[in-house]
Amino acid sequence: MNRFAGKHVLVTGGARGVGLGIALAFGREGARLTLFDVHEENLDAARASVATSGAEEVVTALVDVTDRARVFAEVEAADTRAPLDVLVNNAGIAEEEGFLDVSEESWKHILDVNLTGMFHVAQAACRHMAPRRRGVVLNMASKNGLDGEVGYAHYNASKGGVVMLTKTMALELAHAGIRVNAVAPGYLQTPMSMEIDNPEFVRDFVDRYIPAGRPGTVEDVTGLFLFLASDEAMWTTGQVFVIDGGQLAGQKPGKDLLDRLGPRT
Questions:
Q1: Does 2 fall in a domain?
Q2: For range 138-145, the mean pLDDT
Q3: CA spacing 20 to 30 A to 97: which of 66, 78, 153, 174?
Q4: pTM of this prediction?
């Protein structure tokens, strides 16, 4: 449809997983893309992949979002090539640790990447968008920012912070024509999640918690990013959109209850 032809989209954490999937989706819609990531080898592969999607242009930069000076320099370079229209603030990490075992270093690292790093990129991009009185920021939150999960105190806290950062940004930047929303996925199967969880855990998690009966995929969430970045969502700002297979709808019913109350076949 080329909805984003002529638009410049910056995706952080854009070299694999959800970030790469989002970049490919915008590329298929004709966008000009800049990808930030901290993994150089993944960036090279991502550039080649996104270049074949239909994107107008693909530029990559090795950026650690915790390095404020580097972030501001690379955002400046990206905006100089072409004015930024959309920021997908996706870079993030997770680690499973019991609360009593979380070290200060681990706590700080995850908060620095997931929350402070997001702040750095958002502020840098919005300082360019605001004088033009237009722009879209989409922050990657999580179901875990709204509903806790055992073993992820630092991750949960960081994503809860993303939710409030999003709302505050939306309030402050609306007068400058910048829309800010967050997407909060539930359990997705991505390279990061597969490094943490074995297949048995995934099966048990789905059986216990996800009414839709399966984990999410990258493709399950990319369409929402496209919609929120488009003119179809022009009156949408300050919102957090949960996409989780029904997990936060309530307690998943067991088979016995479904057998009693569910549809007859």
A1: no
A2: 97
A3: 66
A4: 0.94
